[in-house]
Every structure is written in C-alpha cells, then in structure tokens.
Amino acid sequence: MSRLMHVAHGAYAPPAPARELTAVSADGARLHVEVHGPENAPPVVLAHGWTCSTAFWAAQIRDLAADHRVIAYDQRGHGRSPASATCSTEALADDLEAVLAATLAPGEKAVLVGHSMGGMTLMAASTRARFREHAAAALLCSTGSSRLVAEARVVPLRAGRLRTRITKSVLGSRAPLGPVTPVARRILKYATMGPGSSPGMVEACARIVHACPRKVRHAWSVVLEMLDLDDGVRELKVPTAVVVGTADRLTPVVHARALVAALPHCVGVTELPGLGHMTPVEAPELVTSRIRELVATYTHAAQAEEAAAAAQAVEIKEGA
C-alpha cells in the first residue's frame, strides 16, 4: 500500500513549483498555494474539484508554466490545506478571494479555471469584488450549478427518487477508500472517467482521490448535495468557456448545457465524446489549449486596454 498523494513519475507527476505560500481566508483557514512559471508572465489561476488537489493539474501546469504564471491552490481540507470546520460555497468564494489577494497585484487580470467543485468556486465568487477585479475570463470544466445528486448517473438506474437516494448514499459515504488496488481503480474509472481512459490517467486520479481524508470527502459531499449556484452562474459576467465529457457520470452534459444557456457571456462549449468527469486529465492538451486561447484573447486584451488608458491619462495630464 502506497500513501503517495500523487504519481511520482510520468506526464501526471506534478512539477515542482517556483515558490509556495500560504493564503489565509476570511475565517482564518490556511490554504496551500503554488506558483509556477515566470513571475512577469500572464497569470492563470487553477481551482481543483472535490477530493482532488493541485496535483490534479499536473499536465496543465507543466505546459503552461513555460510562458504563464500558473497559480494553483489546495481547497480547504484537500492536499496540503488543513481541514476546516466550515465547508460551504461561501467558504469556497472566500478562499478564492484570499488566493487572488495573495498572488495578484491590484487590478491584475488572470484567467480563472475551475474543474468540478473548482468551477462551483468560480460561480460562488462571481459577485465578489476581488473576483471581478481580477477575472479576465473563465473556463468551467465538468461542473454544474445545482441538482448534482438528482442528475448524477453513477448509479445505473433510471432517473427518479430511488436513484437519487442511492446516489446520495454513495457520494456521501463515510467509508475510507483504502489503498489503490485494481478493484479501486476499476471503481474510480467507472464513476469518474471515460471507458477509453489509459491506465496512467486512472492511476493518477486514483492516487489523488484516495489521498483525500474521508471526513473531508463527506463534509464537502453534503455541500454538493445541497448546491444551488444558479444565481452565481447568471452573475458570472466575464467571458466564459465550458468543457464537458459526454460520458461524465458525475456532472453529465445536461449541466454544461444549462450553464451555456445561463451564462451572460459564454464564449464556447466543447463536448468531448466518450470522456468522463476528469477532463483536465483525460484531455490535457485540449483543456490547456482552451486556457491558452482565453489568455491570448482576454488577458492580453485587458492589458492592452489598461496601457492605452494609462497613456491617455498621461496625455490629458500633460495637455492640462
């Protein structure tokens, strides 16, 4: 039995950060934050999902850090961020604001990326002043805003009260996951990944998910069961792209389509045939390319607008 929180070798082994720091949230919760890449490069902020950690973004970090400043953090209770007594969507928003404050200069724009609960984090923070100050654009991967248990297809039954009740029991289980065994890999692949996922992808996800403490897993499952962030989606006014796998059993395509319909400024949806819930791991190149597109289109544009405004202000001052 290995207690590694992630794979140690290969494409999904997380690279070493350029620096690490601790962000302190509104209630005092301490969040582990990693910064990768050049300090003066355009920033990208990555928020992982339920039961995951910064290691989940290994493929994106490895690629983007060549010419971006990549900021990744562990949600409270996950990875190297200590557990907290408070688990709520408000806490998710508080934590993101704390990370933005700790890593970005005033007014600096970044592309914000969220997978699963990380996407819900962006929705929860959409009305916050610091979010609006720093968000140039957003990418939502494999996520939803409400009805998560009712729509989940982890349990192979018709939609209805019985499936919802069993799904709630499965996702909210307090049982320890135990070591990463062949049976555990098969279960995790069925529940969270597409049928074509490679053994390396499955192993990487299994190591990360099994490292999440069971009390943390259960506490956040309660939040996800009661989730209602539909208003937050309508307030997510920055340019936002959506990615989803058509074989996603945890947040099926119906969620992505609802997001697209509700977002004020949706700039594209990508439905990936046969892929599951873990799209950043299952389709690393595509997810990374979407991030790069958003940076090129919106972060660079925002910087150009700011430079033009500054130049105009100087001209006005000199003319006066």
Automatic annotation (TrEMBL):
UniProt keyword terms in alphabetical order: Hydrolase
Residue ranges constituting the AB hydrolase-1 domain according to the UniProt record: 44-287
Pfam family, one: Abhydrolase_6
Domain of life: Bacteria
The species this protein was found in: Streptomyces lutosisoli
GO molecular function term, any single one: hydrolase activity
Name this polypeptide is given: Alpha/beta fold hydrolase
InterPro entries in the cross-refs: AB_hydrolase_1, AB_hydrolase_fold, AB_hydrolase_sf
Keyword Hydrolase (UniProt): yes
Matching SUPFAM superfamilies: alpha/beta-Hydrolases
